[in-house]
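User: We ran a pulldown and think these components assemble together. Before we commit to crystallization trials, I'd like a predicted model of the whole complex to look at. Sequences follow.
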Amino acid sequence: MANIKDIIDGIMKRVPEVVGVILIDIDGIPIEVAGRFDMKPEDLGALLSACYNSYAQVGTELMQKLESIIVEYGDLKLCQNRMPRGLLTIIAGKNAHIGMIRLEAKRAIDVLTKMMQDTMEMRTEMVKEMKFRMPDSRGIADILSRFEKEGS
Amino acid sequence: MTIAQDAWEASLLAAMWHRNRIVIQASSVDSANALFSLWKYMVPQYRTFVLCGDVPKTARYIKGAKIVEAKEPEAQREAFELSYAEEELGSPPIQIVYFGADPTVLRDVLSAIPQGWIATTTHPPRAWETEKTRVRDALSFADGTFSFLDPIPKDIFIERRLIQDMRDNSEGVRDFKVQLKQSEVHLAFQAMLTELESTGLLTQSYVSEMLNVRERTLAKIMAIGSRERRVDLSSFIQRTDPTIVGFLKEMSSVKELYLAALFDGENLVGYAKYRDINFPSQNFLRIVGAVGAYARCASRTGPLKYVEINTRHLNILVCVHPIVFGFVLEAGPNPLMVRFKVEESLGKLVKAAGTAPSR
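Assistant: Here's a predicted model for the assembly, 511 residues in total across the polymer chains.
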């Protein structure tokens, strides 16, 4: 049976334009990361989670639950998808076909959702084992300003 | 009720709403006064009634009405001029009603007031018409004639809609609907004035969203406001660029579309609500801000171009061109198809306007 890493790696193999995939827990803790990122995984997880939550507020104003977000920058595309217990983010190059990424995300979420329902304890252990620090409870503005300071 | 009757009722409503000078003529003063009573619900109730002449009992009880008791034409004229001048100091607009006016009153007293008066009389126009009180339009029917001394406003779309809407309503409901609309327009103008005091300039789109009114109502607000407060706000309201108007009209063909908003920097320069939805357009800028924050933290993202937020029933699209185009759409089976339609129209707009519509 495939594990989470196989599923995440599989996306990168099937879609060459994908440069990174990150699966984070409902709290913003990274569960699995594939590809190379400029940031530490836990910081990236916190940032993606904070961004997602800020969009979710827009959805709340419409009395709608957020399903997914697609962001296109000049040089990359970002696809964030809500899962029952987490958030799957796929980052791809500018030439990636967004329909293909949507499809991969949908397939992966179906499998991951089932797996994550069964792995609550395992994930708690993994966080301890890998010594990930828990994201603190500060707001998005604080988190972003910290990243900006570190980047400058 | 016939279409012709709807049309003249709409004209009468427009004339009263726009403070046109009206002379109601009938075979007896009582008949003329009765005609005024019948149609008085068309006069906005926030106006202060200034009554003069043989004021009938029914009119004496109009809430807040002032009665000019003076009999001498000179004193009456002074009283009217004083009330009219008080408007400049911020008092509510007045509505003069002169019951049983003779030709002298019409020629020498009322003619001094440029707008906002209604007179009932038994005398035909030839007895009182002068250069200042020339009849421009008249509506005649069995009981009498309404003579309008100012041209009837050309754009009476809202009045027509109101009259059609209350065709089968009782007197009370008609009164309610007319007063509701007139009060809305009156209060909207006050809100615009207050807003302008702090900002100095507003865009038509911003006003349209802020007051939740469409283009025609906005035009009515400006027109009535300029008649009642004698302030022309047109130079303080930046009109929507015709290219953007064309674009927003074209977007109405996208049946899934609820709302579209265009921002030049932080200024809302285009706004259209196609279906009922409660979504402040500032949310589009919030989205761009949040997404931009990610770009500032992560390197090598390039400039932000497009954001799509999908919920179960609605999708939000934001295109940055660098003008920000925001759309709220019904979630359909193929969001890419909708995006394609939107981008096709956007392409035409950008091509037509150069790089940015308002730059």
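The beta strands of chain A are 18-25, 30-35, 66-73, 76-83, 86-93. That may be worth checking against your pulldown data before setting up trials.

User: Thanks, that helps.
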